Amino acid sequence: MPSDNLLEKVKELREITGVGFKDCKNAIDENKGDIEKSIEYLRKKGIAKANKRMGRVAADGLICVYEKDKNISIIELNCETDFVAKNDDFINFAEEVCFIAFNQKGNMDKILSSEMKNKKKVETTLIDLISKIGEKITLRRSEFIDSSNTINFYYLHSSIKKNIGKLGVVLSLETNKKENEILDFGKNLSMHIAASSPLSIDKEDLDQKILQKEKDIITEELKNSGKDPKIVEKIAMGKLNKYIEESTLLNQEWIMEPKKKVKEILSQTAGKDKIKIKKFVRFKVGEGL
């Protein structure tokens, strides 16, 4: 088949099915350019069937963690219902993908193109799983934290297994203290992050776009409330500073002792030594979807 005609056929098949270029090209090649037979071919393979489901919202699922030698990977795998999130095939897939994410240091492209135990790539196995289970399933995000010069912790909330839950936190601390001296602090800080949803470690780490958006919302709200324009800016700054305190980990009230800030507890725990929060990751199933 001439290359121009082939590309037109592939384009047409993609528009009909929503399936990717490579799979569409294979279908066209296998069926000598026949669109109807190509659609049937994709359906038999389970690819078109799976793709039709991808327009749905998948806001349930699981957070999975894999840890070895204090290096930690964490992923979020989404589905549509809690029923599927408890399915053994779904859980087994999540655990194997999290192990792959560990080996690929959280790189999503490398994860999806990695081979699984079944000798198929992750992305292909994902399509097979969608066809088998009958729900939209997506690997939403992945992170990896190594243990070079750090002590790492993880915490899972609403866990169904030791390494699987609905909300997960991974925390990395730089310190010259011994691990056994900060075990309780690391565990408690991880729980604090899970409960308090900080956006960043400190003020300077906050996304300026988020800050500007929040300031615009606050200012507009104050204007609409009929406040004197002369004091709107002052009140807005006060509210914005409050938002910054509540959104940055070091400036949040410590959930176990609300009269103190996290940075005070950090300093108190460190004493004459050093403890620095290098990084944290917080994944909650479906958050923001």
In short:
Helix content is 49%, strand content 21%. The protein is built from twelve helices and nine strands. The chain is globular and about 70 Å long.
Structure explained in plain terms:
There is one protein chain. This protein has helices spanning 3-17, 21-30, 35-45, 47-52, 82-85, 88-103, 108-112, 122-133, 179-196, 208-224, 229-247, 262-270, and strands at 60-68, 71-79, 138-145, 151-157, 164-165, 167-175, 253-254, 257-261, 275-284. The protein has 289 residues and is α+β, with helices and mostly antiparallel strands. Among the domains are: 3-55, Helicase, Ruva Protein, domain 3 (Orthogonal Bundle), CATH 1.10.8.10; 60-199 and 276-284, Elongation factor Ts, dimerisation domain (Tetrahydropterin Synthase, Chain A), CATH 3.30.479. A hairpin with a 2-residue loop joins strand 7 (253-254) and strand 8. The mean pLDDT is 91.
Strand content: 15-25%
Basic shape = globular
Instruction: Please state the oligomeric state of the protein chains shown.
Output: single chain
The CATH H-level homologous superfamily of the domain at 60-199 and 276-284: Elongation factor Ts, dimerisation domain
Q: Could you name the CATH topology of the domain at 60-199 and 276-284?
A: Tetrahydropterin Synthase, Chain A
Please name the CATH architecture of the domain at 60-199 and 276-284: 2-Layer Sandwich
Helix-and-strand structural type: alpha+beta
**Span between termini:** 43 Å
Average pLDDT works out at: 91
Spatial ordering of strands, largest sheet = 3-2-1-5
Instruction: Report helical residue fraction.
Output: 40-55%
Low-confidence stretches: none
**H-E order:** HHHHEEHHHHEEEEHHHEEHE
Count of beta strands: 9
Q: Sheet bearing the most strands, described?
A: 4 strands, antiparallel
* CATH level 1 class label of the domain at 60-199 and 276-284: Alpha Beta
Summed up, the helix count is 12
- The radius of gyration computed from the alpha-carbon positions, rounded to a whole number of angstroms, is 24 Å
